[in-house]
Design goal:
Elements (H helix, E strand, L loop, with lengths): L13 H6 L1 H19 L6 H24 L6 E3 L4 E3 L1 H28 L3 H20 L3 H19 L6 H8 L1
Antiparallel strand pairs: 1-2
Helix pairs in contact: 2-3, 2-5, 3-4, 3-5, 4-5, 5-6
Length: about 170
Amino acid sequence: MFLLQANTTSLINVSDLQLIVPELILTACACVALVMEVILPYRKSKLTAYFSLAGIALAFISLVVQWFFTRGSLPFDGFYGMVRIDGFALLFKAIFLVAAGLAIGISTRYLDIEGEQHGEYYALVLVATVGMMFIACGYDLISLYISLELMALTFYVLVAFTKREKRSNEAAMK
């Protein structure tokens, strides 16, 4: 009878979750951006872009804090060896966050001209960034594959985001 009881308290440690705080922040911001698109009127849709940029800034700040506190003792392994945080992972995560911030900052005017939904676009950019950040710190083949698929699937949707353009539909089909 005692053999059937599982110890679930040691499956996920708080120290493991601390390794992926920037990814958790971006995931939460992506979910909130989707909800903001439904709640806010169309005239205030730029608030979703500003919220997404604030989420990227918060994730960048958490990345800097993570680097500051782990300077001398890198690398760190987490989630039973699936995630490894080292100097290269932190550098590439920072590059991906800056690129996502630039993409969102540049695309706000373009989405106004096209008249497309904003929240979905920003959520897709944030989820693609999460996939890229997990690729940077992935150490196991399964985690690398899942993060590559997360990134690729969101890019497929982003290619076909402007539904009214023929070239966008053609690129999505290819």
